[in-house]
Each structure stands twice: as structure tokens, then as C-alpha cells.
Write a structure and sequence with these properties.
By secondary structure, this protein is of the alpha/beta class. It contains nine helices and seven strands; from the N terminus they run H-H-H-H-H-E-H-E-H-E-E-E-E-H-E-H. Bound molecules: guanine.
Length: 246
């Protein structure tokens, strides 16, 4: 259900700005070969500038193999190993949408990163790892906490900026925070029919300097980043092959 909602939002956003989008909704038991065939077809289609495979995939499909099959120049989700490597080498490439959106948000609100202490909760390929790398590339001092971290509060209390991306409703509370911190809540969990974040918003709002709400914070930024990446892919393709797709 969550994927259906995210894909629906992406479709609507494309339509709003005038990007043509196609959703290929495959059966849950689709084989890896069939999915790879579709990706190869889209790789070769000069009318297609961007491809994304909505995650998570059913267990019988190997995400790493699927993501590697996407043409890195069409990888608007930034999950192909070539784009992952470029981020780690601080080179230009496609950046995963949620981390890119967080950086756009911080920049828009003029939150300085250089020399700041950033604590990231979560080490996923989609958010934790890439946001840590982006922050490091902006000269922040970055700590990544995860399920095996001892005493998470010890780290988060010492942070200037906390990014929470662990998918546990209302996890971060007053016991983890101190005054004047910037808190970025990446979590979206459905609880009793409501969408809630990884942060106990009302317990920390009085003491923090800034905080992103859920819904309506990081989520919309993810969508915007996807549009930005797709526009960038289109522009690059036009530079390479100005007559393609016309
Ligand atoms: N699943 C949850 N968020 C995302 C995303 O940004 N991209 C993809 N491909 N899958 C997701």
C-alpha cells in the first residue's frame, strides 16, 4: 500500500509539471528475467530519460541485480552502483531522491553544515548512507547510528543536526535531544490510519530550533528531487543526442 501511494504521488507530480510518465505495474510473482527485459527495453528507448524501480521488491527478486541493470544515465533514483560510487567520490552523478531533498531543504532554510555535528539514525541504501555522505561532502562531522549502536541518546544529544530514518514511529523523543537542534524526520509509518514520523514531534518541538513535520516535510522533497533528477537526465540526453526522441 505504501508503494502504491508513493508511485501515485510521483505520477501526479510528473503530470503537474508536464513530464510524461508510465507506470509498469507487474505481478508480484514476476520473474527476474521479465523485469530485467523490461528494464533493458526502457534503457534502449530514446523517448525515456529516467527509470526508477519502486522498492521494496518481492523477496524472490535480487534488488542489487535489478538496480544494476538500469542505465546509470537514466538512474534518476541514484541507486546504481556507479552513481553510489560517484556520491562517495564527491563527483557529479544522480543522488537518491530523499537525501537530495533533505539537502535542498537545509539549503533553503540556510542551515549551515560545515563544521556541524550531524547524527544520522539509520544506514539504509535509500537514506542513511547517502545522507551521511552528502553531509560529509559538505564538511559536516557525521556519525551514523544503527540497530547495533550502544546508547543512541549519547550521540544524538551531542548533535547540531539529527536525521532520523529508521522507520520506527515516534522513536526520537526528549530523552534523545537537547536545545536548539535541527531535526529531520524521514519516517513515515501508518498508525491507526494516520501517518506518523520517527520523531515524537510534540515532545521535542518546544526545545528544537527547527523540525520537519510528517506528513508534509521530507516526503514532498523526495518527489521534487525525482523531478529535478529527471529534468537533469533529459538535459544530459539532449546534449548527447539533440535529435533523439523528437
Ligand atoms: N521506496 C521508498 N522510497 C523510495 C524511493 O525514493 N525510491 C524507490 N525506488 N523506492 C522507494
Amino acid at each position: 500500500p505504501a508503494s502504491q501511494s508513493y508511485v501515485g504521488q510521483k505520477e501526479k507530480a510528473c503530470a503537474r509539471v508536464g513530464l510524461k510518465s508510465s507506470v509498469f505495474k507487474l505481478l508480484e510473482n514476476t520473474s527476474q528475467e521479465v523485469l530485467l527485459d523490461l528494464i533493458h527495453q526502457l534503457n534502449q528507448d530514446t523517448n525515456v530519460d529516467g527509470i526508477l524501480v519502486q522498492l521494496p521488491l518481492p523477496k524472490h527478486l535480487q534488488s542489487s541485480v535489478i538496480l544494476q541493470a538500469i542505465d546509470p544515465d537514466k538512474d534518476v533514483d541514484g541507486l546504481h552502483p556507479i552513481n553510489v560510487a560517484k556520491l562517495y567520490a564527491n563527483q557529479k552523478g544522480f543522488v537518491p531522491c530523499t537525501p537530495k531533498g533533505i539537502m535542498t531543504l537545509l539549503s533553503a532554510y540556510k542551515v549551515e553544515l560545515s563544521g556541524k555535528k550531524v547524527v544520522v539514525l539509520g544506514r539504509s541504501a535509500l537514506v542513511g548512507r547517502p545522507i551521511a555522505q552528502l553531509m560529509l561532502n559538505q564538511n559536516a562531522t557525521v556519525t551514523v547510528c544503527h540497530s547495533k549502536t550502544q546508547d543512541i541518546a549519547h550521540h544524538t544529544k551531542d548533535a547540531d543536526i539529527i536525521v532520523v530514518a529508521i522507520g520506527k514511529a515516534h522513536f526520537l523523543n526528549r530523552t534523545h535531544t537537547t536545545k536548539d537542534q535541527v531535526i529531520i524526520d524521514v519516517g513515515i509509518t501508518r498508525v491507526d490510519g494516520h501517518l506518523v514520523g520517527d520523531v515524537a514531534f510534540y515532545y521535542v518541538i518546544d526545545t528544537c530550533a527547527m523540525i520537519t513535520p510528517v506528513p508534509g516535510g521530507v516526503g514532498p522533497m523526495t518527489i521534487i528531487s525525482l523531478l529535478e533528477n529527471t529534468l537533469e537526465a533529459y538535459q544530459e540526453h539532449m546534449l548527447e543526442k539533440p535529435h533523439a526522441g523528437l
